[in-house]
Amino acid sequence: MDHAVTSDLQIAIDLDSGVPPYEQIRAQIMGHVSAESLKAGDRLPPIRALATDLGLAAGTVARAYRELELAGVVTTRRRAGTVIADGAVAADVLVQQAARAFVDQVRATGLSDDSILDAVRGALLSPPPTA
């Protein structure tokens, strides 16, 4: 069940960010999968086309796609191109729902998005609690 190429895929690259462009692409595609705006069978734009649209080298987009393939989020087939893999969505949907609830709660306290991201990064870097 192949779907048409997702031409309305919204990806923006911030060249001033400390995050490499391939990682920005990877994270944004993961976000689209988690939000279910990309579903199993949806085709991603060809590497060269997306690279041209974003003003990046094709190798940068290829690396993002490769990372997504290694994570099992996409599969690449000769004639079909790169498509969202079956089963890539289920676990991500739960994470997205939890993230949405968290963001809604902390935004209600008045924290800025940057402060929220800083708090999450800090939590990810801290050692897990011991039982």
What is the CATH C-level name of the largest domain? Mainly Alpha
Rg, nearest Å: 16 Å
| Beginning-to-end CA distance, first to last residue | 46 Å
The largest pleated sheet is described as: 2 strands, antiparallel
Question: How many strands?
Answer: 2
Domain module tally? 2
- Kindly name the structural category: mainly alpha
- The CATH homologous superfamily of the largest domain: Winged helix-like DNA-binding domain superfamily/Winged helix DNA-binding domain
SSE diagram, text form:
Elements: H1 21-34, H2 47-54, H3 58-70, E1 74-77, E2 81-84, H4 90-108, H5 113-125
Antiparallel strand pairs: 1-2
Helix pairs in contact: 1-3, 1-4, 2-3
Can you tell me about this structure?
Keywords: DNA-binding, Transcription, Transcription regulation. This is Transcriptional regulator, GntR family. There is one protein chain. The chain has 2 domains: 21-84, Orthogonal Bundle (Arc Repressor Mutant, subunit A), CATH 1.10.10; 90-125, no CATH class. Helix 1 (21-34) crosses helix 4 (90-108) and helix 2 packs across helix 3. It is globular and about 50 Å long. The protein is built from 5 helices and 2 strands. The protein has helices spanning 21-34, 47-54, 58-70, 90-108, 113-125, and strands at residues 74-77, 81-84. With 131 residues, the chain is mainly α.
